[in-house]
Design a protein that fits this description.
Elements lengths: L16 E9 L7 E11 L5 H12 L3 E6 L8 H15 L5 H4 L3 E4 L12 H19 L2 H6 L1 E4 L5 H8 L6 E4 L1
Parallel strand pairs: 2-3, 3-4, 4-5, 5-6
Antiparallel strand pairs: 1-2, 1-6
Helix pairs in contact: 2-4
Length: 176
């Protein structure tokens, strides 16, 4: 007889972690930078207690913690995104020190970015990165917020790349 699966012994898809390498293109660089031994933690709309525990455990170890933010399939307005971000990120970072959070890489990777693109999406990407950085300033301070790498992980057109990378809140673009 096979074991019945329950919520207690199944890790939901939104909580699964992956270990891998990330290739990041940064402004002014010809070749992508490689960040290895990453532990990617995906933040979706669920209780963040377990994700907070996983993040804190990763920060104590040798892996590079990467927190992937996704607002889902909807293109949220900046106000809605700020509310969603504030709720999720504040809970996940609870109890994480300034020194520890400075090691963090945040990848903003909206699901909608791979679908139909709109002309204003490059601006939306820059606004989302600014909102992430602003929230880090509120939770920690200016210096710590500046140390956290915030990477764009969604689809970007070649013609938009320079526009996205020139923003001071976008530390790079993830290359898949």
């Amino acid at each position: 007889m096979s074991e019945m699966l329950t919520k207690r012994n199944v890790v939901p898809e939104t909580m699964r972690t992956t270990s891998r390498e990330l290739r990041i293109l940064r402004a002014g660089m010809d070749a992508p930078e490689l960040i290895s031994n990453c532990r990617v933690l995906t933040l979706l709309d669920h209780s963040s207690r377990e994700l907070n525990h996983q993040l804190r455990t990763t920060l104590q170890g040798s892996q590079q913690p990467v927190l992937k933010l996704d607002e889902g399939d909807l293109r949220l307005t900046p106000v809605d995104f700020a509310y969603l971000l504030s709720r999720r990120l504040t809970n996940v970072l609870a109890g994480v020190s300034r020194a520890a959070v400075a090691r963090l890489v945040i990848v903003y990777s909206p699901s909608w970015a791979g679908e139909c693109r709109l002309p204003a999406d490059a601006q939306r990407i820059r606004i989302a990165h600014r909102q992430i950085r602003d929230l880090l300033r509120i939770i920690y301070d200016q210096e710590t917020a500046g140390q956290v790498q915030i990477i764009y992980g969604g689809f970007v057109f070649e013609e938009e790349l320079a526009d996205v990378l020139c923003d001071s809140n976008v530390d790079g673009v993830l290359i898949n």
